[in-house]
Amino acid sequence: MDMPLSYEQIQSILPHRYPFLLLDRVMELEPGKRALGKKQVSGNEWFFVGHFPERPIMPGVLIIEAMAQLAGVLALCTLKKEGVKALYFLGIDNARFRRAVVPGDELKLEVETMRGGSKIWKLQGRAFVGDDLVAEAEILASVGGEA
Length: 147
Hints:
Blueprint: H1 7-13, E1 25-30, E2 34-40, H2 60-79, E3 86-97, E4 106-115, E5 120-129, E6 132-144
Antiparallel strand pairs: 1-2, 2-4, 3-6, 4-5, 5-6
C-alpha cells in the first residue's frame, strides 16, 4: 500500500467524518500486522470548549477512539478484498492513561494485531507524545458488512 495515507484517503476507508474523525495521517501500514498514524492536536478542537476551558486536555476516551480508528484502517485495508466495509468497536481492556494530551501535541498512534483475520479482531493500541507513552489499551472489534 502506498504510504502515507492522507486525511482524504483515510476518509475513503473509514465512515467517520469531522468532527469525529480523529486520525490525520497513516504513516505506516503492514496489512494484518501493524499501523502507525498521527493526530495533530490543535487548540481549536471542539472538545476543548468543555474539557476543560481553563486547562484544555484531550479526553482519554477520544485518545482511545483515535487508536480504534487506526485499528479500523488496519483491519479494513487487510480485509478489503473480502468486501468488508466496517469495523465495530466491541470493547476495551487494560486501558491506561499516563499523561495529559494538550493543544500543540502531536499524538503518535500505534496499533498491533494480537488476533485478527476473522470476524473478531483484538489489537494492542498505544499513543505517544514524542517518546512519552500517554495511553495504551487493548481494543476488541467486530467486522461488519456495511458502515
